[in-house]
Amino acid sequence: MKSETYDQKTIVHNYGHGGGGLSLSWGSSALAVRETVGMQPGDVAVIGSGIMGLTSARLLQDAGWNVTIYTRDVWRHTTSNVAAGEWAPYSVYEGSRASPAFLSQLDWASRVSHHAYTNLTGPDYGIRFLEGYTLRGRPFDGFDGRAEIASLFAHKANLEPGEHPFGDWYAQRFVTMQIDPGVLLRRLVQDFQVAGGRFVVREFATLSDVLSLDEGVIFNCTGLGAGELFGDEELTAAKGQLVFLPPDPAIDYFTFGGGSGVLYMFPRSDVLLLGGTFKPGDYTRHVEADETERIVDAHASLFAGFG
Ligand SMILES: Cc1cc2nc3c(=O)[nH]c(=O)nc-3n(C[C@H](O)[C@H](O)[C@H](O)COP(=O)(O)OP(=O)(O)OC[C@H]3O[C@@H](n4cnc5c(N)ncnc54)[C@H](O)[C@@H]3O)c2cc1C
Fold this sequence. Notes:
- Helix content is 28%, strand content 25%.
- The protein is of the alpha/beta class.
- A hairpin with a 4-residue loop joins strand 13 (264-267) and strand 14 (272-275).
């Protein structure tokens, strides 16, 4: 999170959240909005209408700003709208490169975001608490990840084979939130418009294009688009592939693992979602048939004994 000044315009950057952007959104956007402390609220531009653009816009409105969102794609066509939807701020940074200051910001953003989502639980915003089970072939020792973030997962327990219905796997149980991105984004768009926000469909090709906006303060929430637009060579893609099946309201838990490669099952209200892949540096967008087959076959084996 940082802001820069060009031609007397302030640009606040709010992008680069890897596999945890949905989870971190409110906290990351709160950090971004903090960059405007001391400014007189007036007209502000937000570029991007994914989860970072929408949460930045809502927090700016609450702080008294008059917000216009400029975006190439409307919310329905953003990466945010296809996120799997677990509240888990993971796969966000490279451990070897994270400074203590960055990690402290991550802890703060995680806590703020968790709190914000907790206040939005229910069908209106598409958020509910669910049990999750991480499955693997060897026993668990404690709970992985940063202690501050782990503390936000409730009812944690490490279970032996026989203490759960998933066969011979060792399981780690926890409770976190399932976020249905389609429901959430649609509702945030509505909240934004009710509060007087305006959308303009526009693609920016260069920095000078961005600086041609009338607004003196501009929030850059362009996700992967920021690499080209702002010349950020450190930003890289991570390709994720999902399989969508018809929803099954009887399923009220997540699973992670339980086979080879990246695997997860999320019972979203719109789809029963099977994942997945996580391929850093892969910019391709095509569906990989062998990955689809692996994902479906592995889940078919995992749930073979279920009624
Ligand atoms: C398969 C998959 C599963 C995931 N699962 C989870 C999960 O379970 N939990 C979680 O927390 N996170 C998850 N994520 C990560 C999450 O989806 C992202 O971190 C998050 O959506 C990023 O949001 P964003 O608003 O920054 O970017 P985006 O949603 O990509 O939005 C970017 C916006 O900027 C606009 N834009 C870009 N370039 C330009 C330009 N030049 N001019 C104008 N507009 C521009 C776009 O049109 C778009 O509106 C997952 C991601 C994937 C791919």
